[in-house]
Design goal:
Length: 259
């Protein structure tokens, strides 16, 4: 009996150790990519300023136009999405070769997504507070972009919505990575063709109400027009993220290693 308990404790300790190693590997890779991304962004901003200086392209700011600080997070969301897509196959193969279990690899990816969701949501609130204080002594207005979509927007609702959106994007990126790993390039071609067509098809369908069921589902998912829509949409995003995450786990737990 004692031998069985010791064996169970040893397995549990080994699992925690491998999970820690997987997570540390993921974070090290992610931080390196973050540094490169930040450097590139700074170089682009610097180049734009230099270009404006030499072309004398000086824009006068209209104080009636509100500054929306949380829009700054959009490039980081795109970066996170692209990193998850590109890292899934490489990291999955590498960690499997390091004797990590598929379950621990999946958990380490989830930890990356959750960390991003929490940190970027907090950063969004900090930016809003910062610009609100600056706007009191400067000649510009500030606003949350969500105020143009939902009513009843405050710091709590903004934090929950931002967290839910980042969680949804991260979960979908993992599902995409798992499907691409399993099916191959055919899935990528199919997905991006559908994605490109959706930019034309969805606005036409919603504008002219060609498919009432689709329009109704679209409005319900984003809870547009609802008084507490920002909260309902956040819940919908989290539920969708959980579904994507479960689908990813079901695919990843039996995935064969590919070179």
């Amino acid at each position: 009996m004692n031998n069985e308990l010791n064996l169970t404790e040893t397995k549990s300790t080994n699992n925690k150790s491998y999970l820690f190693k997987c997570t540390r590997f993921q974070f090290e890779s992610y931080f390196k990519a973050c540094i490169i991304f930040i450097i590139v962004c700074m170089l682009v901003i610097f180049a734009i300023r230099i270009l404006n200086f030499f072309t004398n392209n000086i824009h006068t700011y209209n104080s009636n136009t509100p500054v929306m600080p949380n829009v700054i997070l959009l490039p980081w969301l795109i970066f996170m999405f692209c990193w998850l897509l590109s890292a899934y196959k490489e990291h999955f193969n590498h960690l499997l070769m390091m004797c990590a279990t598929r379950k621990n690899i999946f958990k380490s990816f989830i930890i990356i997504v959750l960390t991003n969701a929490i940190s970027l949501s907090i950063l969004s609130i900090i930016l809003q507070l910062y610009y609100i204080e600056i706007s009191k002594i400067s000649n510009f207005n500030t606003a949350d972009i969500l105020q143009f979509i939902y009513s009843n927007v405050n710091f709590l609702s903004s934090f929950l919505w931002t967290f839910a959106v980042i969680l949804l994007i991260g979960a979908f990126a993992l599902l995409y990575g798992a499907l691409h790993y399993k099916i191959g390039k055919l899935f990528s071609v199919f997905f991006w063709v559908i994605f490109g067509c959706s930019w034309v098809i969805i606005p036409v369908i919603t504008t002219y109400n060609l498919l009432p069921i689709f329009t109704t589902a679209y409005k319900m998912f984003f809870s547009v027009g609802n008084k507490n829509g920002i909260y309902f949409s956040a819940v919908n995003f989290i539920i969708a993220a959980i579904i994507f995450g479960c689908a990813t786990y079901l695919i990843a737990r039996r995935q064969k290693q590919k070179v």
